[in-house]
Structures are given as C-alpha cells and as structure tokens.
Amino acid sequence: MTIEDLIRAAQEHQADRSVPADRIRAALPRRAARANRHRRYGMLAAGLTAAAVATAVTVPALALRDDSPAVTAEPAAPPASGPASATPSSQPAPGAALPTQVKLEYRPTWVPSGFAEHIRHFNVGEPGDSLGPTLMRVWKKSVSAGDPWGGTELSLYIRTEATDAAAAIDTSGQKVDINGAQGFYTPPQGDRKSSVNWTLDDHTALTIAALKVDISKNDLLRMARSVRPDPGVSPVPVSPRWLPPGWETTGAEVSGPSQDTWRSYVYAVRRAPEPSTDADRKAAKEGNSQSGELSVTVGTTTDAPSGGDRFTVGGHPARHPVRTDEPGKRLIYLVVDLGEGRLMTLIGSGAGLTLDDLKKVAEKTEITPAGLAWLGG
User: Fold this and answer.
1) Could you tell me if 205 and 248 lie in one domain?
2) Residues 6 or more apart whose Cβ sits within 8 Å of residue 75
3) Which residue windows does the record flag with biased composition (Polar residues) (predicted)?
C-alpha cells in the first residue's frame, strides 16, 4: 500500500460509520476532504488529567489513526525541568489557520437521557471549499481516555460560513418543520442511522445525525427544535508555536470522559498543487510529495508503536518508534513522556518532514488545559 492507500482506507473506514454522503451531504469534515481529493489524516485527540497540568507544558503529541494498537501510558517519569510556558502566548502561532478559541455558535438544549457532550471537533475547511469551517459537537453515553470515536453518537454539525447553505445539506428526506425553517428528516434504513438537516439563513447550515442509535423521529426532531444560539467559545488546549515553513494548523479536537481526563490534538498540513506531470505523480506515489501531514496529540495513551531510539526532548524522556511495514515506514513518530502519566505523540509524513522538525514542534508547543468543564456535562 502507498501512503495514499493508507489515507484512503482510513477515510473509507470513517465513512462506513458515518451517515452516507447521499443522505447528509459532506456531513463529516473527513468525508468533505475526501470529496475534494485532499489527503488528510484522521485526527486524534489527547487525554490529560487536570491535576497534572497546573501550567502550560511545551511539548506536543501527534498521531495518525491507523491499525496500530493503542499503547497505554508508559511509567511516569519525574517532572522534567525542560521548556514549559507558564504564560501561554495569546498571539496566533506562525502558520496557524486554526483559531485559539472556536466559537460554539449553536447547541441543543435537549438531548435524550443518558447522553452527554464528549467530543468537539473543528476543521477550518479546504481553500475554496464552499462549505466553510465545520464544528462538530458530539453527545455520547461514554468515551474512553483514548480514541473517542465509534459506537452510539448524536452529533450536531454547524456551518455558519457556507457559500450556499442550502447546497450544504441533504434535501432528499421527508420535509419537516424546525421552528419555522424548512428541514429534512432521513429515517434509518436498517442501519440505525438517521438525520435532520435545515438552514437558518443563506450561510448557516445545521445537521443533527444519529449513529448506532435507536432514536425515534419525534425525539430526533425534538433535539433539532431545541437548538439555540450558543455565545460561548471552546479553547483549543494544544497550540504548536512553531511549524516548518509552509505548514499550517487546520483542525483540532477535544474529547474525554470529564474535564479531569481529557484528550486533545491539533492537525497541521502543508499543501501542494495537485500533481500535473507524470514525474509529480510518481513522486507523490513514492511519498516524496511537497504536501505533508502532521498531528500533535496529548493524552494518557499513544497510538505509536512500542520501542524506538531513546533521547530527551525539552528535558523530557522521548522515543522514536519506527515501522517497517508499508506504508507505515513513511511515517515519522515521536513520543514524549511528560511525566504524571502524560504522553505527547507526534506523527508526520511528507514535504521533507524530519525527526528534527518534530522535535522542534514538540519543544515549542503550548498546552493550556482550560475551559473543559463541558466534558461529560
């Protein structure tokens, strides 16, 4: 498999558990990326106990979702005296398309009993994408400290900057009224997936999607009709303060059982023009494309393989696992042990990215665990 095959497989896996594209157009940011033929890693979140993060820590963790088994936190190392920012910068990081705080815009004031908000996933969108940025707020019955995806989910997709909001939703379902707005309800078709789509104005499109949930039409419509403006913001806990030239942050995710055990990651890319010659296509196939992907994840588990050369990064114990399989050998891993059961994982590929680049990203990343009381609430 090539790196393209890996990414395509990951996207297809994500698509299998989402509402089909013909039923909820571009519902998932990763599906939109696939439709636009932009390579994208699945974002990973980071878990971290609040007691262990009294100050911002300057070391991150990136991870690419693949078939590698998750590894639990390594034995805690004594707190290191390496670089750490006691006062996080309020200025945008170089190359940051991602805001430091995400506007929440809307929220349901009613959800079925037993569900709580456990995931917030934000993507700035692709250049020229008519859908614009997408915020995904997810209510689940429970999540682990690791990868939060899978299982029963009720999701609210929020797009407030769509070029044409009406074109951003699926209108093939049953017509319904959502507080005076025209909506469309798509019932399950033996797959425990259903959705409600509606627009509020020319640029605002909302969707509530149920996955692996036996929820009645009345309850799904009740949830949709309970949606109200939310003036709040959601901080992005992980903030890379340095990226290689040409790279930019484009997405982030926060998840976890509660504010005491959270996980967060930031995703960064280096975009390059679509290959236009046979030489460009060959270079891209061989993993030598000018485009690249990088994620920085903070959590109590890591998706990186075990083992690897050991050294220190910013005064913290670190290791560099290496995979020899295809396409894993093209991925660069860096795992940093921050102590107190906290792990930082970086995973990158393409655009000439090196291990030294990952070390510098780790050393310059700020972690600010604040504003997380919503987790599990």
Assistant:
1) no
2) none
3) 287-304
